[in-house]
Amino acid sequence: MLLNERQLELVDRQIKRLIKTDSFYGQKYRELGLNGCSCQADFDRIPFSSKEDLRFAYPLGIQAVDDREVVRIHSSSGTTGKPVIIPYTAKDVEDWATMFCRCYEIAGITSHDRIQITPGYGLWTAGIGFQAGCEKLGAMAIPMGPGNTEKQLQMMIDLKSTVICATSSYALLLSEEISRRGLKDQIFLKKGVIGSERWSDKMRNTIRNSLGIELFDIYGLTEIYGPGIGISCEQNSGMHYFDDYVYIEIIDPVTGERVEDGKSGEIVITTLVKEGAPLLRFRTHDLSRIIPGKCACGRDYPRLDVITGRSDDMFKIHGVNMFPSQIESILGMVDGVGSEYRIILGKDVETRRDVLHVTAEAEGRVDFAETARRISKLVKSKFGVTPKVAIVPAGTLARSEKKTKRVEDQREKV
After folding, report:
1. I want to staple 240 with a disulfide (CB 3.0 to 4.6 A). Which of 91, 198, 301, 353 is the partner?
2. pLDDT band at residue 316 using 50, 70 and 90 as cut-offs
3. CATH class of 89-311
4. Measuring CA to CA, which residue among 108, 170, 118, 175 is closest to residue 139?
5. What's the gap between Cα 34 and its chain centre?
6. pLDDT tens across 285-310, in order?
7. Which pLDDT does position 78 carry in this prediction?
């Protein structure tokens, strides 16, 4: 999808504003001789930006406004290095709330709803984004934050929450607890707004059926406002994103070349009006595709398909490149296997060969040994790698109140 005239104008404005600053990107663009963007060819010459840039510029090197204009900062978790710190102006905060309000409206959520917000508050962008959009919509916010499942269920019942906002991992945990305690008839939930991590069709169906609710995928990331730059609609045919605030292109993650609409690749985002920390051509590492054509819902916002994984989630074993989503897809083909699984990459101490360990949950009605053999055979057939598979009863693997870590590489520890 190429830039339209209005988007070109906004990108040109961002570049001209950035090169007047001493920010990391202002200096970089001046050194490269960038002075504007009048056509697609100009845009294509803009170098990609990355999380590595943001860590290099830590803490506030990407800030493009005076300190007096910054009203808030947010940050990534920093679990894989220095945290990324993003400054926001008052307009940035307002724009984010506007996009989030649109998300709720697309999901059919109104001012009459009661929205229980379970994502975390604080430096993380999630909780406060869900709340700001809720307040702009005029709905009742129930700002629970993560954890304390007992309290979550009490508030859900007593306050008659109609919408749950959560990571897919925590939505699964709540749905399982509601089923286990026989509380389904006591809750009033109608919709779930789920984000922060990719989730399988099996997990989606488990949550939907356990709670009896309509589910919506919400998209966003800390570097680009936070969650709320796009959401799926009632057609469940991709996520509408707000192209008056962000421009999205899909690239081949290896070559960096843009791919045509409909083809899968890495999502790259340009913020069109962000003030505090504008980012041009930011590589997200999220994998998806732009869905061509107009949605059957009639909305004009373009669409991203569901996130299938991350380009940096890839792991190599026996010379074969693999993604967690590929293992997940195989598990989804096997009768009785649940949505929860873990992958451990280990090394045989004697042979020094890599070993792929897969642990998956299954219903008690299936033969665990036969199920493990079938999964092993399917993985071998697809990848030429024979995994060690363990099947455990449903509910055995630890549940998370945030994101679930599904892959652990222990090879360097051996």
Report:
1. 301
2. confident
3. alpha beta
4. 108
5. 31
6. 999 999 999 999 999 999 999 888 88
7. 55
Per-residue pLDDT, 349: 74
Distance between CA atoms of 60 and 74, rounded to whole angstroms? 11
Q: Which of 138, 139, 192, 132 is nearest to 167 (CA)?
A: 192
d(CA 64, CA 87): 9
| Neighbouring-strand partners of residue 224 | 221
Which are the contacts of 47, defined by CB distance < 8 A and separation ≥ 6?
A: 28, 32, 281
- pLDDT (0 to 100) of residue 169: 85
Spatial contact of 47 and 32, defined as CB atoms under 8 Å apart: yes
Say which residue, 322 or 129, is predicted with more confidence: 129
pLDDT at 32 over 80: yes
CB 281 within 8 A of CB 49: yes
Buried b (16+ CB within 10 A) or exposed e, 216-231: bbbbbbbbbbbbbbbb
Place of tokens 């945290």: 83
Half-sphere exposure of 131 (CA within 13 A, CB side): 16
Architecture (CATH level 2) of domain 314-413: 2-Layer Sandwich (3.30)
The Cα–Cα gap between 285 and 265 comes to 9
Report the pLDDT averaged over residues 151-173.
Answer: 95
Q: Where are the domains of the chain?
A: 89-311, 314-413
Helices (H) and strands (E) in the chain, counts: 11, 21
pLDDT at residue 79 tops 60: no
Q: DSSP readout, 358-381?
A: EEEEE-TTS-HHHHHHHHHHHHHH
Task: Write out the two tokens for 354.
Answer: 């890599």
Instruction: Specify the DSSP element, H or E, that contains 44.
Output: helix 40-44
Instruction: Quote the pLDDT of residue 91.
Output: 98
Cα gap 371→391, rounded to integer Å:
7
Q: How many CB atoms lie within 10 A of CB 358?
A: 20
Higher pLDDT, 147 or 262: 262
Q: Which positions ≥6 away from 11 have C-beta within 8 Å?
A: 3, 37, 43, 46, 247, 270, 272, 280
User: Interhelix angle for 324-331 vs 368-383, to 10°?
Assistant: 130
> Residue 259: how many CB atoms within 10 A of its CB?
17
Distance (Å, whole) CA 127 – CA 202 = 26
Return the closest-CA partner of residue 389 out of 337, 316, 351, 352: 337
* Of 399 and 46, the one with more pLDDT: 46
Give the global pTM.
0.86
